[in-house]
User: Fold this.
Amino acid sequence: MQLSVEQIRFFHLNGFLSIETPVTDDTELAWMREVYDRMFETRAGRDSGDQFDLAGADEDGKEASLPQILNPAKYAPELTQGKYLAVISQIAEQLFGPQAQAHLAHAIFKPASMGAPTPWHQDEAYWDPAWQYQNASIWMPLQEASLENGCLWFMPGSHEWEITEHRPIGGDVRVHGLEMVNLDLVKDAVACPLPAGGITIHRNRTAHYAGPNTSTIPRRALILGTGLGSKPYPGNRSFPWNEVKQTARDERAKSASTD
Assistant:
């Protein structure tokens, strides 16, 4: 898939790009949905802390409103064989250069009629503040992503911001997900509905949001990472919103690492 000069320019000026042309075909998308649904039905990675509720306290026995699985290739390695991955890597190379390759990062599921919103945030706010990043996330829905089921929204130009103040969703330190504190910064946001297999790409500091799933179908999204890696951050900074977290997900991860 060849990007136009206008598309490349738009990405670098605005910090995001929406590509509505699917990067794969219906047959592969149907296969990916089967693999994806199996991972979430079995809660793959829960014992190791890779599966958890992004928007809630992640309590056992309680239905998650925004379940997530980190490192999906660890639990479904067949996903790395899809032809979609080669197309997305080709797109990444056009935006970042030949050294950029795409890799599976995580999967987020919004259940039908009850999937929680993903609050406004910057991805880098989750990461280690000791590093400086030149990365991007590629978001791919496995069915149509609409305003009703939770497509992504972006704040143009926010990739030029510093990392703004965040907090755990709702101020609850038991919740892994983050939200921006100052929503007055968000103006003229752009919604990016997509067909199945379309993608959006956004930089690590680009502020973005996804609404709740009020539709009657589940919203499945597979997220890939790409970019130029990281280097030490010049100076000192901290992300206190991550230091205060006390999540069940972290406890499971710690327990798994000592077993």
Remarks:
- The radius of gyration is 17 Å.
- The chain has six helices and 13 strands.
- The chain has one domain: 5-100+115-198+215-258.
